[in-house]
Automatic annotation (TrEMBL), chain B:
Its cofactor is [4Fe-4S] cluster. It comes from Magnetospirillum moscoviense. InterPro entries: Peptidase_U32 (IPR001539), RNA/ubiquinone_mod_enzymes (IPR051454), UbiU (IPR043692). Keywords: 4Fe-4S, Hydrolase, Iron, Iron-sulfur, Metal-binding, Protease, Ubiquinone biosynthesis. This is Ubiquinone biosynthesis protein UbiU. The gene is ubiU. Pfam families: Peptidase_U32. [4Fe-4S] cluster binds at residues 176, 183, 200, 239. GO terms for molecular function: 4 iron, 4 sulfur cluster binding; metal ion binding; peptidase activity. The lineage of its organism: Bacteria, Pseudomonadati, Pseudomonadota, Alphaproteobacteria, Rhodospirillales.
From TrEMBL, chain C:
Belongs to the peptidase U32 family. UbiV subfamily. It holds the Pfam family Peptidase_U32. One of its GO terms (molecular function) is metal ion binding. One of its GO terms (biological process) is ubiquinone biosynthetic process. It comes from Magnetospirillum moscoviense. InterPro entries: Peptidase_U32 (IPR001539), RNA/ubiquinone_mod_enzymes (IPR051454), UbiV (IPR043693). Transmembrane segments: none annotated. This is Ubiquinone biosynthesis protein UbiV. Forms a heterodimer with UbiU. The gene is ubiV. The keyword Transport does not apply. Keywords: 4Fe-4S, Iron, Iron-sulfur, Metal-binding, Ubiquinone biosynthesis. It comes from the Bacteria. Pathway: Cofactor biosynthesis; ubiquinone biosynthesis.
Length: 230, 332, 302
């Protein structure tokens, strides 16, 4: 499936330029929907390179928590992102299935909320107080991550755009599509929510159902893995 | 009518980005801490390196704002070097003041850095004129951050008694229910305390458990609260938990709530307070920007004799609830 | 162990009825093997008027019995009335040491010998030295300090160092009264409900786990501190004075147990069993001295 397919009906060429308000987390969110994780991995690798080069303070702030794996789980997407903040060898991995045993902490919430959080546009405490964000496991590394990202005060999209030059296909194509997507959603997060996310965010019932579904899938996958099929 | 004195707005910054947000939003002062246990917000991923402080001071000074460095935990016996170094580095980097709580550290700073301006941290809980005079006369403390135990009327009385020592009071944010710096609840449950480690109810000991019907928040294995579906949640700060006492389940110490004195600003300004402090170095820059802007507008309105603007800070308050805390006697 | 170990009975922190308060101290005077006895209201100035009438006879009885009497100050001084009462205490010069539990009281006592109380923040040598320079001849250290710091400070002190060794630990003090709040009352109209709980009001978690205790504006540990096992090691490392906080139990017997362990007359393990029998409803902890969570009971040597 082509990455550009997913934005059908939303991309309107010729619209006026804007400062893209969206980080790569969002771009990936948009890009991820129809794709297998392996295809997205190069983009995450690139994002991490940008962070390492231009915002070393993020990893520096996470130094004490390098061995703790955090699962960032947008509840309205079929993927989660695993972050291993080890400053020497940080990793950001897209995963379809995540075993609770392999992560130290999970941050779970609507994509829109996670993005706003990553960009420092909303207050993480406030989000949690209002129950839009669920934190499980090791709260310390989650707090460290939140503080590190918030403290960087960065414009990841600009950085990423400039960093994508040397990229080969398909990551480049994918990133282009994602960037186009971001540019197209110019009426802001609300449009995005309406068009992509809102249907999936229907409160606890749907979330619980999805968790149950995921658990079943994980179980199946584990079984398969034990039989040597995965 | 006596002329009102314009209070300084003292704003929190846990990171350089937050410092920038605070300064741009109209802070007169920004207070920060080093990334270690020398300050009472020694939280994961937070606070300043020496280099970041140097850059932060330069940025703040460019905007005409001051930078205060909180070194407000109590140095560990036998190992005071970390704290002494923090004071020395603050002096070297030309911080506008250091905020100290420990008597021994105040004595050290007064002796070794006589030109460094000293503020007394809220963690010293100097709640009366005699205490304040003690710190002013012995160590040359110029300003005292009052503990959150006094009513506005008591503050006005204290102010009159201790001039020319300046007072600073909290106007917004997380509310300590106990006299600050005089609480060992956190170490009792977790082994880590505000006074010794710079943390209260530390994240390393916090667990949230999502169960059918809601969330349970735990601290070091103690259940601090349970929240039903849709009920606003709170961080499991010990004194904001739900407990059972006298056969009744309640927020025995305090509800998960934030101090918000916006509506009281005219009264507080009349009390002759030098500086208004916003709590929240551990909150993000979105919080800093929103709260600083709100209080900038509020203070400016009062000083200009305009009516208070109607500003809603509900969304960023803990549990969505607000209180004027100890400033009103009924709180007690 | 060149110095004989001393026992201090801390001030009664609870709101005991005046007769109970008087009778308790009379029995302590007559029977308890403690060297020093602290008296005075520490927690809430609203209670002071009830104690004032019986204090003189209590002090007289204790003094006659050969006990050293120490007058303990309030912990949190906020009003002019409270400050004035503290000033009277500090300047009375009645021949008793005053224990300062708020830094303002220490400043009022400057230049005269006094006791730096356990509710002052004394965490390091610098602060200890400053208070000793002010006149502190004895310092009771805060509850949350681990043994290595207690020992370091004992080594640095010019005067005496005392540590807390028995009873519910004072953990926090507030302007707000939680006893009143638990009855939906304001502090101003509290009806002195704290008197209903002579050992403090138990505070459980939502899982019914005992956790804290409330004593008016003070928050205490649910657990009773028990340092019987640690006494010999602490003595060997230079700590010679131990404070017992009064609980509504047979404190004469409790003091006798601590004395027996200090004298080497009873094994700590046996004493601990007897202590448990003396305090049938209590759970015990010793975590702080082991550098751990205060509520834990650590079974290890120091």
């Amino acid at each position: 499936m082509m990455a550009s397919d997913m934005m059908e009906g939303q991309y309107r060429p010729g619209a006026k330029p804007m400062t893209p308000p969206f980080s790569p987390v969002l771009l990936l969110g948009l890009a991820l929907k129809p794709l297998r994780p392996a295809l997205l991995q190069p983009l995450f690798d690139a994002m991490l390179r940008v962070v390492r080069r231009q915002h070393p303070d993020i990893l520096e702030r996470l130094e004490a928590y390098g061995d703790r794996v955090v699962c960032i789980d947008p509840i309205d997407l079929p993927f989660a992102i695993l972050l291993e903040p080890n400053p020497a060898e940080p990793r950001l991995t897209v995963r379809r299935f995540v075993d609770a045993d392999e992560v130290h902490a999970t941050i779970r919430g609507p994509l829109e909320t996670l993005i706003a959080l990553a960009e420092g546009k909303v207050d993480g405490d406030a989000l949690f107080f209002s129950r839009q964000l669920v934190i499980e496991g090791d709260t310390e590394v989650v707090v460290a991550l939140r503080n590190a990202i918030d403290g960087a005060g960065i414009d990841l999209i600009a950085d990423l755009t400039s960093a994508l030059g040397p990229f080969a296909n398909p990551a480049r194509r994918l990133a282009d599509a994602a960037l186009e997507a971001a540019h197209s959603v110019r009426s802001g997060i609300e449009t995005l929510r309406q068009s992509l996310i809102a249907p999936a965010v229907q409160g606890a019932a749907s979330r619980d159902a999805r968790i149950a579904e995921l658990e079943a899938e994980v179980k199946a996958l584990r079984k398969a893995s034990r039989r040597g099929h995965a | 009518m006596t002329e009102l004195v314009r209070p300084e707005l003292v704003c929190p910054a846990g990171t350089p980005a937050a410092l920038k947000s605070a300064v741009e939003a109209g802070a007169d002062c920004v207070y920060v801490g080093f990334r270690d246990e020398t300050n009472a917000r020694n939280f994961p991923g937070l606070n300043f390196s020496r280099k970041e402080l140097e850059e932060g001071i330069a940025l703040a000074h460019d905007h005409g704002a001051k930078v205060l460095v909180a070194i407000n935990t109590f140095p560990r016996a036998g190992r005071p070097d970390l704290w002494h170094q923090a004071v020395a580095d603050s002096a070297r980097l030309k911080a506008d003041a250091v905020i100290l709580a420990d008597i021994g550290l105040l004595a050290h700073a007064a002796h070794h850095h006589p030109d460094l301006r000293l503020h007394l941290s809220v963690q010293a809980a100097a709640s009366n004129p005699d205490s304040i005079r003690f710190y002013a006369e012995r160590f040359g403390v110029k300003r005292v951050v009052l503990p959150r135990v006094l009513t506005v009327q008591e503050i006005a009385t204290v102010n009159a008694a201790i001039a020319p020592v300046e007072t600073e009071v909290f106007v917004f944010g997380g509310l300590c229910v106990m006299a600050e710096g005089r609480c060992a609840l956190s170490s009792y449950a977790t082994g880590q305390s505000p006074n010794m480690n710079g943390v209260c109810s530390p994240a390393s000991h916090v667990r949230y458990e999502e169960r059918a019907g809601g969330i349970t928040s735990q601290l070091a294995g103690f259940t601090i609260n349970k929240f039903g579906e849709g009920e606003p949640a709170g961080y499991p700060t010990l004194c904001k938990g739900r407990f059972i006492a006298n056969g009744k389940t309640s927020y025995l110490f305090e509800e998960p709530t934030s101090l918000n004195t916006l509506a009281m600003l005219p009264e507080l300004i009349k009390a002759g307070i030098t500086a208004f402090k916003i709590e929240g170095r551990q909150r993000g820059r979105a919080y800093v920007a929103a709260v600083v802007q709100a209080f900038r507008q509020g203070v400016d309105a009062v000083m200009a004799g305009r009516p208070m603007p109607d500003i809603d800070l509900d969304r960023i308050t803990e549990g969505g609830r607000q209180t004027t805390g100890a400033y009103e006697r009924t709180w007690r | 162990m060149t110095h004989p170990a001393k026992l201090t009975l801390g001030p009664v922190l609870f709101n005991w009825r005046p007769e109970a308060f008087r009778d308790f101290y009379f029995r302590i005077a007559d029977e308890a093997c403690v060297d020093t006895v602290c008296v005075g209201e520490v927690v809430c100035s609203k209670r002071t008027p009830f104690l004032a009438p019986v204090l003189p006879e209590v002090i007289e009885r204790l003094t006659s019995a050969g006990k050293e009497v120490v007058l303990s100050s309030l912990a949190l001084i906020m009003t002019e009335r409270e400050a004035n009462e503290a000033r009277q205490l500090a300047t009375a010069d009645a021949g008793f040491l005053v224990e300062a539990n708020d830094i303002s009281v220490a400043s009022m006592l400057a230049g005269r010998p006094f006791v730096a109380g356990p509710l002052l923040n004394i965490y390091n040598e610098g602060t200890l030295a400053a208070l000793e320079e002010l006149g502190a001849v004895r310092t009771c250290l805060p509850a949350e300090l681990p043994a290595d710091i207690l020992v370091t400070l004992a080594g640095a002190a010019k005067g005496e160092i005392e540590i807390q060794a028995f009873g519910r630990l004072p953990l926090a003090i507030s302007a707000r009264c939680y006893h009143a709040r638990s009855r939906n009352l304001a502090k101003d109209g509290c009806q002195y409900v704290c008197a209903e709980d002579p050992d403090g009001m138990a505070v459980d978690t939502l899982d019914d786990e005992p956790f804290l205790a409330v004593n008016g504006t003070q928050t205490m540990s649910y657990h009773y501190l028990d340092l019987l096992h640690e006494l010999p090691a602490l003595r060997a490392r230079g700590i010679n004075r131990f404070r017992l906080w009064p609980q509504n139990v047979d404190m004469v017997a409790v003091a006798a147990l601590y004395r027996a362990v200090l004298d080497g007359a009873v094994e700590p393990a046996d004493a601990a069993d007897q202590l448990a029998a003396l305090c049938p409803r209590a759970e015990f902890s010793n975590g702080y001295v082991h550098g751990r969570e205060g509520h834990l009971f650590v079974e290890a040597d120091l």
